[in-house]
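Data availability (excerpt). The following record was deposited with the supplementary files.
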Amino acid sequence: MQTVEEYPVIAADLDGTLIDEHGNPFHDVSKGIRYYTDRNGQVPIVTGKDPETMFAKTKRRLSELLGRELTIAHCGGSLICGTDGEFRVTPLNEDRLDSAVNLLIATYPRYVTIVPGIADLEGFGSFALGQTICWIDQERVSEIGVVRRAFAERAYPNKLMSNFTGMIDFIRKVKPVHIYFSGFDEGNMPDDDFMKDLEVLSTPSGSLEIYGVGSKAKGIEILSQMIDVPVDKMIFIGNGIGKKENDYSVFMMPGLAYKVIISEVQLSKEDYEQFGDNVIVLHPNELGEWLLQFK
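Predicted structure:
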């Protein structure tokens, strides 16, 4: 019988893993997550969706699903979390990051400072404010997201400003900005520039720093260091086993305690062989019950 003490972190994909195509949690998933977190387990959400699209899709269901403040890892593994101190990773694409940095500074010069030597580029439009869990409780706003305007308008046309204007009023309450850049592994969404263009980070001192994250697997490694939980005590739950899926890098990642694959069909022998011996396969409606077996 697994215990939360043995495995204190379960990192989980969102779409197709915790929720269906309509944003509804699968059977007993909300109950299972709250059961696990009530026993001091952590469930960071690791999704390839940017937070704007994710929250627009799930609306209040995400906060209902999680029930407490948790880390969200997004855009193929980049982390957003309110951590004290600095953690530096080499940027994947400094040119793309520069434009986001400079727009942030130009828009909010009173609240953000800049490290020397970052040049001005073009390509970003709007700002959105987010939280570690969702944008329902605006008092807990803790990040500023740089949204590429064209993508945001495609995601939810005519709603962008109505969704975000009220949150701009909370800029004075924003803690130091924690925003991460992420690209995808080769083969993952290569034609969607938005997924490659983000982001910037501010340290607790208020000066901007760059975090580069290349995949969900890299995101899991960074998360492990930030929360001081070794990878071999972490479990990952996802549903994307194809090589072009962003879960794939985690399923191929060595060292994880367990890799839980959500699937409505049985995996092939080859799938088991490539992902290792510590694979568990569950139907979407079995995940909640599986979480409830932790002691």
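Summary of structural features: Confidence is low (pLDDT under 50) at residues 55-60, 68-101, 107-213.
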